[in-house]
Amino acid sequence: MASRDLKNNIKILKALNIAAISTNTTTVGEEIDTQGYESVTFEIITGARTDGTVTPLIQETDTSGSYSGSVDDDNLVGLEADAAISVLHSRSRIGYIGTKRYVKLSLVSTSVTTGLTAGASVILSDAKHLPVA
Predict the structure, then answer these.
(1) Distance between CA atoms of 25 and 110, rounded to whole angstroms?
(2) Mean pLDDT of the chain
(3) Cα 131 to chain center, whole Å?
(4) What pTM did the predictor assign?
(5) Which of 33, 34, 69, 130 is 20 to 30 Å from the Cα of 10, by its Cα?
(6) Is residue 133 predicted with pLDDT exceeding 70?
(7) Residues 6+ positions from 2 with CB-CB distance below 8 Å
(8) Whose CA is closest to 15, among 58, 69, 64?
(9) Cα diameter, the chain
(10) Residues 110 and 55 sit within 8 Å (Cβ to Cβ)
(11) What is the CB neighbour count within 10 angstroms for residue 45?
(12) Rounded mean pLDDT of 47-59?
């Protein structure tokens, strides 16, 4: 029995548009400003799939638009490799617990010949000011 409000205590944003991926590539997601939130979770989804695997790449920065490398595993809840998806109609999650203001999720696709559809959302929670919605 639900007795608590979650709707007004989280913010869900598009992290990566759902799109067809038909080559081995890196599909770059949206920049997410985490200011005002203490918890960040990315959810990756796949739809139709004939082949290929998508693996998340999480990046962080203090300066908007300035990304390089990937987040250290110590700043993730779960590993990027463990959040990889290689089946149709699947979901996986990975959390970020680093100290940078901006984060971004990209999907690295491998073993693609015909492809798949994939996208991602980000859930921001533990807001410093409520309600958020």
Answers:
(1) 7
(2) 95
(3) 23
(4) 0.94
(5) 69
(6) no
(7) none
(8) 58
(9) 47
(10) yes
(11) 17
(12) 95
What separation in angstroms does the CA of 47 have from each of 31, 117, 125?
A: 23, 5, 26
Q: What is the mean pLDDT of residues 4-29?
A: 95
pLDDT exceeds cutoff 70 at 51: yes
Give the per-residue pLDDT at 68.
86
Arithmetic mean of pLDDT, 99-122:
96
How many other C-beta atoms are found inside a 10 Å radius of the C-beta of residue 28? Answer: 14
**Across residues 83-104, what is the average pLDDT?**
96
Provide, rounded to the nearest whole percent, the portion of the chain with pLDDT above 70: 99
Residue 14: both structure tokens together: 């598009």
Between CA 55 and CA 24 the distance in angstroms is 11
Q: Which two tokens stand for residue 83?
A: 């959040």
CB 95 within 8 A of CB 15: no
DSSP of the chain? ---S--GGG-EEEEEEEEEEE-SS-EEEEEEEE-TTEEEEEEEEEEEEESS-EEEEEEEEESSTT---S---GGGEES-TGGG-B-SSS-EEEEEE--S-SEEEEEEEEES-SS-EEEEEEEEEEEESSS---
